[in-house]
Amino acid sequence: MTGLRTDLYELRMAASYLRRDMVAPATFSLFVRRLPPRRGFLVAAGLAEALAFLEGFAFDDDELGYLRDVVGLDQPTVAALAGLRFTGDVRAVPEGRVVFADEPLLEVTAPIAEAQLVETGVLNLLTFHTTVASKAARCRLAAGDAELVDFAFRRTHGIEAGAGVARASAIAGFAATSDVEAAWRYGLQPSGTMAHSYVEAFPDERAAFRAFAADFPTNPVFLVDTYDTPAGVRAAVEVITELGLTGPLGVRLDSGDLAALAEQTRAILDGAGLTQAKIVASGSLDEDVIAALVAKGAPIDAYGIGTRMGVSFDAPSLDSAYKLVAFGDRPVLKLSPGKATLPGPKQVFRDPAGASGDVVGLRDEPPPAGREPLLVPVMRGGRRLEPADPAGEVRAARRRFDADLAWLPEGARRLADPTPLTATVSPGLAELRDRVTAQAGRGGAY
Amino acid sequence: MTGLRTDLYELRMAASYLRRDMVAPATFSLFVRRLPPRRGFLVAAGLAEALAFLEGFAFDDDELGYLRDVVGLDQPTVAALAGLRFTGDVRAVPEGRVVFADEPLLEVTAPIAEAQLVETGVLNLLTFHTTVASKAARCRLAAGDAELVDFAFRRTHGIEAGAGVARASAIAGFAATSDVEAAWRYGLQPSGTMAHSYVEAFPDERAAFRAFAADFPTNPVFLVDTYDTPAGVRAAVEVITELGLTGPLGVRLDSGDLAALAEQTRAILDGAGLTQAKIVASGSLDEDVIAALVAKGAPIDAYGIGTRMGVSFDAPSLDSAYKLVAFGDRPVLKLSPGKATLPGPKQVFRDPAGASGDVVGLRDEPPPAGREPLLVPVMRGGRRLEPADPAGEVRAARRRFDADLAWLPEGARRLADPTPLTATVSPGLAELRDRVTAQAGRGGAY
């Protein structure tokens, strides 16, 4: 069960609400306060994982026993938690859409104890997936037409994170993943051939390449940098020629000066008539390294991108928040320095022409002329409006990202010194903010 | 099942080995090639998780069907994988011990297909846990005698990563975690009281504090920065006085100038006779912020440290590797530029006096005078030598870290510009390296 997958303070607050019969619906809004340096946009991701978390949220007997015996919750509270499920409504920006700072990605409306208990899981999942999808999107911008493969699994933050990275990078347009479980779960293309250890397990490179090609004649990719790269490429060429391989195949470069080695490798391959052979590059790649390789015209057909994408090395998290914006019929806010929030349930209105930034307004206000709302209902009464479809969700998200990438203004796409679009506040929301702030200043949070 | 929790290339290589009856034992060595900037040492962590992964490694029928039908492995290979378990031996540095670059943290010896298949999971888990424990250790160094609490769960890389961060930070000396599931699983102290949303759900701060203290009179911590911090502290004092609370309690500051606010808060609390009330600080903390607060003499008793520790913000991964060092009876290495490896099974020999860096030698060579070996046997024939004990393992690891922290030379402890100890290579290992390199240069990897 998943009920303990929360912060202790959520449980204490929920217990207090349940004891006091505070069951009015609360709306919490999840947003990113500011973009990390060098991010011109974010790619919304993780929603399907968050909805699965919400549908599964419940406490089993062992968990309830822990809360009673170790955490010290009293019996009436434990009994109330035993029957608790998430019964709320969720509106969200669909996965794959491009978003910016200060815009709600998701809003939960539920009895306040439920909405509070799920904060940790929902915030965790949307933050993680959006962080990685946004980093992966930068790799895609850098790589042009080259194919991208997720090689991150070995250094993600745990095993589950590996699957999350595979999913998030697929949304951003990666063509395949090395993570077999993730490929299975999400209908992705699994990818991978050999490591240095394979080459070392044979008496020499030719023997290793010959064995591998015999066992996997469909699209073998020979790793050529174990000892000396040009010699490794020539060994691959000999084996390819000797075995008469004519289908798709390639070589992988994993170390050294990739631009120079790719040139040399291309020349050796072409000289042997293997113009169809692809060159795959890997090894500590990120969008900056790829952009530099592309700028040099390195003849690289595909990039295997690992750790630096999978942990979003330069910005491994987002300044995300899940904040109460309404309780019962009153909008609320907080005024903490640097962390003030906007009251009330919201909507984001986008200009499909891309000529101006998004407008953040009230949930129920009519869209400004020509603008489209970004948040859509995705869950009602604790049930998803669309049944879970792990592979279909990723495909749909990737299509949305493709469309939004075409829409995204040049300034926000830039890898270096990007200019993100800035969201503005609608007159209706500004009026509500000023009114609630004035009331809070007089001692209440209404 | 867990068999698909691997990279596709591991499966292809394993399939090739199985087809060719290449069943000789291989030894793979896991080490960190270089420390991240600003790290003077690492804290070994994740071993118990890796051993659980190894014990559970197996393919179920659905997974085998996927490998046959989608990945395209042939039936004899699928049949071989159906019966495959990890049957190897593992030696490792115990969790909690301080380690440095170029030292094996773990060595696996197993039939090569098995040793290859588990690479991804073992490398993933040791890298992730060691990354986070090492960051958490820096927070501990910064905080002096103040108590540290893991608040990272909401922004770790997924739900499972939250539990991993709680565990890794506990090894480094954190006193408690907000992650309830992790506290349950690993016998940690769960911690947390209220969020801003709780304060906002009541008509004013006094009403919120009064309700919370009534529901949780044992050690309540009042969050005082929702609207105006000094006013919040005064509201807490009024409620404490009104309800006659005399046990342990405190206030939490989560925004603003924490040093100045802590001073003001201490003065208000002391002025009301609440000298026992603790001040907890949180909000984008890391070792640098904490060190600055400590340097200013800020009267803060405990720190809640979240995202920046939980994703190891400034160094979210390590340059770790899992490399073949022996196959059958021959030591092997690779010579890739910048990624060359040392051949043969190894041992790390430490000077308990701390006067000199570790010596990396051959597994079976006698320890140099006065030095102790760091790697110990932890698994034989695929079974752990000690039964799993999630809570006991964390406690033992924390004790080891306490001892190693007392041993660690000052230069390596420094937060800024640390000087890590440098491992040297024993004469025996150097001789083997030179011999194997010369042979590889003549065309073989022996």
UniProtKB/TrEMBL annotation, chains A, B:
<feature type="domain" description="Nicotinate/nicotinamide phosphoribosyltransferase">
    <location>
        <begin position="147"/>
        <end position="321"/>
    </location>
</feature>
<dbReference type="Pfam" id="PF17767">
    <property type="entry name" value="NAPRTase_N"/>
</dbReference>
<dbReference type="InterPro" id="IPR036068">
    <property type="entry name" value="Nicotinate_pribotase-like_C"/>
</dbReference>
<dbReference type="InterPro" id="IPR040727">
    <property type="entry name" value="NAPRTase_N"/>
</dbReference>
<keyword id="KW-0328">Glycosyltransferase</keyword>
<comment type="pathway">
    <text>Cofactor biosynthesis; NAD(+) biosynthesis; nicotinate D-ribonucleotide from nicotinate: step 1/1.</text>
</comment>
<dbReference type="InterPro" id="IPR006405">
    <property type="entry name" value="Nic_PRibTrfase_pncB"/>
</dbReference>
<feature type="domain" description="Nicotinate phosphoribosyltransferase N-terminal">
    <location>
        <begin position="4"/>
        <end position="126"/>
    </location>
</feature>
<protein>
    <recommendedName>
        <fullName>Nicotinate phosphoribosyltransferase</fullName>
        <ecNumber>6.3.4.21</ecNumber>
    </recommendedName>
</protein>
<keyword id="KW-0597">Phosphoprotein</keyword>
<dbReference type="GO" id="GO:0004516">
    <property type="term" value="F:nicotinate phosphoribosyltransferase activity"/>
</dbReference>
<keyword id="KW-0662">Pyridine nucleotide biosynthesis</keyword>
<dbReference type="InterPro" id="IPR041525">
    <property type="entry name" value="N/Namide_PRibTrfase"/>
</dbReference>
<dbReference type="Pfam" id="PF04095">
    <property type="entry name" value="NAPRTase"/>
</dbReference>
<dbReference type="InterPro" id="IPR007229">
    <property type="entry name" value="Nic_PRibTrfase-Fam"/>
</dbReference>
<keyword id="KW-0808">Transferase</keyword>
<dbReference type="InterPro" id="IPR013785">
    <property type="entry name" value="Aldolase_TIM"/>
</dbReference>
<comment type="function">
    <text>Catalyzes the first step in the biosynthesis of NAD from nicotinic acid, the ATP-dependent synthesis of beta-nicotinate D-ribonucleotide from nicotinate and 5-phospho-D-ribose 1-phosphate.</text>
</comment>
<keyword id="KW-0436">Ligase</keyword>
<dbReference type="GO" id="GO:0016757">
    <property type="term" value="F:glycosyltransferase activity"/>
</dbReference>
<comment type="similarity">
    <text>Belongs to the NAPRTase family.</text>
</comment>
